[in-house]
């Protein structure tokens, strides 16, 4: 009980301090963030779309959507990219849509040219929304790089994860949602 209370205090302090890295997230929060089953906020304030025309979550109802907050200068984010690429390859034809939301940690990461180069360097083929002003980041109440939000076919967030790892749990959630007709 004491450990749980201390964890909650550490998490609250972390949330008040603003965005943190995945390494800090691992110290502050469990793998699943307890705020699931809320309606996924729309993708707002996007300055550029790469690999796609602009998307709206409302238009993706009936599909499973994985929203991945990342920035190309974050090694923890880069480490998750092969796993996301694998999910994209396995499940894109079954109804999975991955949307990378690039939210820059540093000023140089705001450059669309730099983001496009990183997308090419890492072989990212799914849509990437450039969220330079953190509008979508804030709408999701996100605080971590990287962070994944899985949205079910009805538009509800059913799974959240901050940091690296939980790859099996993420894939199992996607598999379950893809076969669910609800």
Which short descriptors sum up this protein?
single chain, disordered N terminus, 182 residues, 6 helices, Glutaredoxin, globular, 19% strand, 37% helix, alpha/beta, seven-stranded mixed sheet
Structure description:
With 182 residues, the protein is of the alpha/beta class. The chain has a single domain (2-179), classed as Glutaredoxin, CATH 3.40.30.10. Helix content is 37%, strand content 19%. It has a 7-stranded mixed sheet. It is globular, with a radius of gyration of 16 Å. The chain starts with a helix and ends with a helix.
Oligomer type? single chain
Q: Note the beta-strand portion.
A: 15-25%
CATH superfamily: Glutaredoxin
Query: Which sheet architecture does the biggest sheet show?
Result: 7 strands, mixed
The pLDDT mean sits at 86
**Secondary-structure element pattern, one letter each:** HHEEEHEHEHEEH
Domain count: the total is 1
């Amino acid at each position: 009980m004491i450990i749980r209370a201390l964890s909650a205090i550490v998490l609250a302090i972390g949330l008040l301090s603003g965005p943190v890295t995945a390494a800090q997230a691992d110290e502050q929060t469990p793998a699943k963030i307890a705020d699931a089953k809320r309606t996924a906020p729309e993708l707002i304030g996007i300055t550029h779309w790469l690999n796609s025309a602009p998307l709206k979550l409302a238009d993706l109802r009936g599909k499973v959507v994985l929203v991945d907050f990342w920035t190309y200068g974050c090694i923890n984010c880069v480490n998750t990219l092969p796993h996301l690429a694998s999910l994209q390859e396995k499940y894109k034809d079954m109804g999975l849509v991955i949307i990378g939301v690039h939210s820059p940690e540093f000023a140089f990461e705001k450059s669309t040219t730099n983001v496009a180069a990183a997308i090419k360097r890492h072989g990212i083929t799914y849509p990437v929304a450039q969220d330079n002003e953190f509008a979508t980041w804030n709408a999701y109440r996100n605080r971590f790089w990287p962070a994944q939000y899985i949205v079910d076919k009805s538009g509800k967030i059913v799974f959240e994860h901050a940091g690296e790892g939980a790859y099996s749990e993420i894939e199992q959630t996607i598999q379950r949602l893809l076969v669910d007709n609800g």
